[in-house]
Specification:
1 helix; 108 residues; alpha+beta; two-stranded antiparallel ribbon; 2 strands
Amino acid sequence: MSILLILFIFFIVVPLVSAMYKIWSFRRRVRRFMEDPFGQGRPSPGSRPSREAQPQRRASKKIPDDVGEYVAFTEYESHTSTESTGKKSTTVRTESQITDVEWVDIEK
């Protein structure tokens, strides 16, 4: 009789309890998802807030505002001339070419 009881517990009760636990945990996960589908809700009472839930501390700038590249330039005056031939007038704006460029030959 004890062998039948052990077999009954091993083959009937254990699988039933396991199936009931799986169904219960699945229903709990579905309920949590339906209440907060994107996981952005408030944490449950008594739990520590996760790292994502804590506001991000804004880091200070590593490079100060007064540091940067400054390119010195010189403005050249441009000349505008108007030519009129017959019924059409054409405006031409000419600028002088760049003269302060230094050419460097690259050698391998």
